[in-house]
Design brief:
By secondary structure, the chain is mainly alpha-helical. It contains 7 helices and no strands.
Length: 103
């Protein structure tokens, strides 16, 4: 069994859902592309390329954006509706059984 079921996730599904909805989520927080980029440690060009579907959103950047948007009331409630934060993803990240890490 892989740790936390993370390997069985369809990461592309989640990253694509985030990329498609990124302009809406960013705007909801009143952030420019530059401000959002600074929050997660990338360039404005990276955010622009993701929003324009020129570049795929990496899993690492997805996780950074997910954390940011989950911590804000204005965007947290939108994530499940947009298919970005599903019960499956919540189950992967919510655990108390540390034996799941042992192989």
């Amino acid at each position: 069994m892989e740790p936390l079921g993370i390997l069985s996730l369809d990461r592309k599904k989640y990253t694509q859902a985030m990329a498609v909805n990124l302009p809406t989520l960013r705007t909801r927080l009143g952030l420019s592309q530059t401000q959002l980029a600074d929050c997660i440690g990338v360039t404005r060009q990276t955010i622009s390329s993701i929003e324009n579907q020129v570049r795929e959103l990496s899993w690492t950047n997805f996780l950074s954006l997910l954390f940011l948007f989950l911590q804000n009331a204005d965007t947290a409630k939108l994530l499940p509706v947009m298919g970005i934060y599903t019960d499956e993803l919540e189950n992967v990240f919510s655990f108390t059984d540390l034996n799941r890490f042992k192989g």
